[in-house]
Amino acid sequence: MITAEGGATLCALVVHVIFNRVEPRNKTVWFLLLVCLPICLGLGLHSFYASLFVSVFKTMLIFIGSLLSSLIIYRLSPLHPLYGFPGPVLLRISRLASFKILFTGKQHEIYQQLHEKYGPYVRTGPNHLHISDAQAVPYIMNSPRCLKSERYNAVKREDSNARGLLGIVDPKEHSRRRRLWDRGLNTSALKGYQPLLTNRINQFVETLRRESSSNESIDLAKWIAFFSLDFMGDLAWGGVFHSMEDGNDVNGLLNLSQTVTKIHETAGTIPWTRLFYEYLPVSKKTIQQLAFAKRTVLDRIKRGCGATPDLFMYLLGEHDDTIDEPLSLPALVLETSFALIAGTDTSAMTLANSFFYLLSYPDTLSRLTAEIDALNDDLNPNALAGLPYLNAVLNETLRLQPVVPNGVQRVLLPGPSGKGVVVDDRYIPPRTNLQISPYCVQRDPLNFSPHSHCFWPDRWLPNIQDRLRGNDKADFRHNEQAFFPFSYGPTACAGKSLALMEMRAVLSTVLSKFELAFADGWNPAEWEHNLKDFYTLRGGPLPIVLVPRKVAS
Ligand code: HEM
After folding, report:
1. Is residue 32 part of a domain?
2. What is the pTM of this model?
3. Does 146 count as an annotated binding residue?
4. Closest atom of ligand 1 to CA, residue 499
5. Residue 207 sits in which domain range?
6. Among the atoms of ligand 1, which is closest to the Cα of residue 409?
7. What's the pLDDT band for 542 if we cut at 50, 70, 90?
8. Candidate from 435, 493, 536 with most ligand 1 atoms within 8 A of CB, to mutate
9. What are phi and psi of 350, to 5 degrees?
10. Distance 486 CA to ligand 1 centre (A)
11. Does ligand 1 come within 6 angstroms of the Cβ of 339?
């Protein structure tokens, strides 16, 4: 005859199998399986115990204890499909351990240390592989068998069926929506945005002059973020922000967008935690934010497009009545808000990092300034796109500090025979979550060498190998397949060309107008120390002294 303990244990094992097979993400199912089931069992087994309360309490304890033990034993056992992949025990047992890593803000560095210890494929969760292998890049990011993982559900809102581009998992639906974005971010659209960019850059230069007139240092990172927000506000919502003028982010959007990305990263790290986010106070803030975005979008629709085209115009289809599926209002609100989030912090952080590295390596700063000066103030986008050293500086910044350091996450679908796949001689079982990190791959000496962890823009110059001598020549490695700061494949960054145009223009204009130096007494080591990875990279202040350059007579 079955004992009370045996019954509770058996139930726990059955629940484990159900969770393993079905991975339910529904609060009611969780409640039924994890709370109601053991309580009912306790009620049914009360004849074994002194009282009803003791029966329910003990059954619950045995049930939870058995469930946890069964989970742990299975995840560490050779029965688990990822048994052969190395990784820290705590991470192999539960993704909860990755929360601790996430909240340090240094997950990119910690995962890199794990790769140094365990190799290019590290098991970072019961069902997760963290990968630092350039050969896996095209496979994971450009294969019909690798879909966006459950992490992308974190960007879906419960109160609406609308999805923004980033949250669309189905490849066909994604490619339909992506066409809208591509129309708004292709070469001819970018030409149309040039007047908006030029206006904002002129305003940025005037702002820097105003702020640095007392010879005090200024926080360059903050002002770049204001510039970037104002410019993306022009493109996404028809010019609603005046952060450079006000010297303040009045609507608190920069902070809010960082909080939202942090929440998405948290929910993306352990998808079931998403069930509880709506109870957090910050959830109210995002709802207020969406209400603000909705008002702004409605206002922009009413005003119509001004003389200069903007991205909103393309997303709404104002330019083209042949669009067969115009976006619904909730989708338009999501997409334009996403444009703001995707386009502001990313370019701003890369620019701040570029200034930081240029000032840290004065020789690189002089070489870039000379290259820009040779254009005699004709800083048009085509001329800038052709400057080898300027592009080398931006590439090298993005190599060392990709703004999505930990990269994208995909899940491997089973093949026709239910099998996984072999990548770089390793068999990866189906349904594994795969995360491939540009931060780790791009700093790997196997891909970029010498000076893998140093800022050395020369590696990007044509024929550099011919100019190297000795060890540098022997060690030289330059694997462009291992460079993917804008991601790769059909879901790669839609705004890459816009970002490059904007960053080239800002860097070259500022260097042509000002001499820059770190503020006296500031320790540059603080900059890298303050860089935090919460899905996107964010940083602390960058105190800089700016002096207008003398115009050559
Ligand atoms: C230095 C600047 C930038 C970098 C390094 C960057 C990087 C990335 C990366 C890594 C992704 C993939 C994210 C994922 O799948 O989880 C992405 C997606 C995206 N980015 Fe950027 N980005 C930058 C600037 C911009 C700008 C200025 C825009 C303009 C709106 C933009 C729009 C987008 C869009 C729409 C997507 C989604 C693409 C899709 O799912 O098809 N990005 N970006």
Report:
1. no
2. 0.92
3. no
4. 27
5. 165-548
6. 16
7. very high
8. 493
9. -65, -40
10. 6
11. yes
Region 353-358: what's the mean pLDDT?
98
Q: How many domains does the chain have?
A: 1
Q: Which residue stretches of 401-486 are H helix?
A: 438-442, 464-467, 470-475
H-helix segments, 270-328: 281-303, 311-316
Q: Among residues 137, 132, 127, 136, which one has the least CA distance to residue 110?
A: 132
Least confident of 315-319, 414-418, 511-515: 315-319
DSSP-derived letter for residue 539 is: -
Question: Is 498's C-beta closer than 6 angstroms to any atom of ligand 1?
Answer: yes
Dihedrals phi, psi of 294, to nearest 5 degrees: -65, -45
- At 347 the three-state DSSP class reads helix
Asked if the structure places residue 57 within a domain, the reply is: no
Cβ–ligand 1 distance for 491 under 6 Å, the answer: yes
Does any domain span residue 459? yes
Give the pLDDT confidence score for residue 102 in this predicted structure: 93
pLDDT at residue 156, as a whole number:
58
- Report pLDDT for 323: 66
Is the pLDDT score of 26 beyond 60? yes
Q: Name the closest-CA residue to atom 15, ligand 1.
A: 408
Q: What value does the mean pLDDT take over residues 408-434? A: 92
d(CA 365, CA 369): 6
Rounded CA separation 344/328 (Å): 24
Q: How far is the CA of 192 from the centre of ligand 1 (A)?
A: 20
Residue count of the chain, please give it: 553
CB contact set of 489 (below 8 Å; sequence gap of 6+): 138, 141, 142
Dist. CA 193–CA 306, nearest whole Å: 12
**Could you tell me which of 364, 414, 416, 408 has the C-alpha nearest to residue 390?**
364
Give the pLDDT confidence of 59-90 residue by residue, as tens digits.
Answer: 889 989 999 999 999 999 999 999 999 999 99
Structure tokens at 125: 């969760």
Ligand 1 pocket test, pick from 264, 341, 346, 351 with the greatest ligand atom count within 8 Å of Cβ, gives 346
CB neighbour list of residue 144: distance below 8 Å, 6 or more residues apart: 171
> Would you say residue 553 has pLDDT above 50?
no
327 domain residue, yes or no: yes
What's the sign of the alpha-carbon dihedral 66, 71, 72, 77? positive
pLDDT digits (tens, 9 = 90+) for 187-214: 999 999 999 999 999 999 999 999 998 8
For the chain, give the mean pLDDT: 91
- Tell me the CA–centroid distance for residue 36 and ligand 1, in Å: 44
ipTM of the complex: 0.99
Per the listing, tokens 């540059």 go with 524
CATH number at residue 354: 1.10.630.10
